Amino acid sequence: MIIWVMGLLLIASFICFVIYAMKGGNLTIGFFILTIVWTLVYFLGVPFGIGKPFNVIEETFAQPALTYGSTIIQIICGAWFGRVLVDTGIAASISYRTAKVGEKSPVLATICTALVTCLIFTSAYGVGSAIAIGVILFPILARLGVPKRVAVPVFTLSIGAAMWINSVLFVQFAAFYQDYKSPDGQVIEWGGHYLRFGIAAMIVQMIGVIVFILINAKAIKNGKPYEVGDPDERNVEIPQVPIWTYLLPVVPVALSIIFQWDAVPALFLASIIAFLGTGHMKTYKGFVNILNSTAKTAIGDIGSLIIMLLVLRFFQHAAVTVMADFGPALTSVVPNNEMILAIAVCILAPLALFRGPLELYGAGSAVISILMGMGVFNAWFLFALLVVPSMTCISSCVTQSWNMWAVEYNELEPKTFLKNGVPVYWLCTFPIMGLASLLLF
């Protein structure tokens, strides 16, 4: 009887969290409350022989946070390199010159804009970087007459495509699986095994973006020029940087693939080369100033994210502990056929929108904990199962910070943005999940 009571309490709290997340509730607070509730539910069953007592402070709150240090370091280094690309003028120069090259052909210019946005965000990360690039690209697209309903999804979908090989986002998703004991002993980690899939997934999504542009080619060609954003931001002075520095966004990924470098030294080396190549190391004082300013801004950009991820780690440990006792019951209810689950997730991919049950940075965090609690699935399968809809959803969900900025900056109706962006990401989910089955698990 008590097991049923516990199950109902867990389901009720999960449903409340789903509603809370989808209504835009603060995820840090939501995860913390859910951690406490699930821990209390677990201890409810201890007197009845379900589970066993453990040191909550040490095992749920202390150790998960302390063992998360390496992931935080990777996130900080990635955010710092992204800020370096922006503050040294490399990202702005790439964006401006690429868009200007295709000015005589609006369709070509839009495709070039998509490609260069993807290139920059293979290493850059965060809403600050997105704004810095967007205030350059959107006015150019506006002068070319590219409709807002096309320009905004192209920009956000291209950023989303780059996230497949962005180490900052990878380590965030990998943290969900850090404590999972895969039956075959596999571990989720950054490296060649993941990158061969990540690169393929990025290419697929960019093909989807280009097809979207070509479908709207007539509207782009017949579009009338308009103005967007603050007039003072439309004539941004574009810094002059050496052409060879345009390759720097892909340097960290190249070092990981070719030399099997860890993300941290790869990002550090790329940052130093960026400072050197743009003349910011000519004087000691100038180098110290930009070093300090980029680091300060980067850490400020991700401060709230890091706190949320730490609280998420608390919940992950509590959830895995609780669900371990429900594993046998779940196995008889949840299909353990990987193909069936993968197809179902692709069909239901829009449920990742608004932090729903297929979005890891939302209600999906509880879903993956339940699946991990069963202890029967391959680690890379579980990774793909929720990361694929979560990653593609980043491109078109208005709860994503840079997407919301782009929508507001262009004064585009959110429903128009969703109407144009969601079909593209949804259709991309199917081939990307297929690639995952071939290259990941």
Automatic annotation (TrEMBL):
Keyword Zinc included in the entry's annotation: no
Origin organism lineage: Bacteria, Bacillati, Actinomycetota, Actinomycetes, Bifidobacteriales
Membrane-spanning intervals of the chain: 6-22, 29-50, 65-86, 107-138, 150-173, 194-215, 253-277, 298-319, 339-358, 422-440
Keywords: Membrane, Transmembrane, Transmembrane helix
Protein name per its UniProtKB record: Citrate transporter
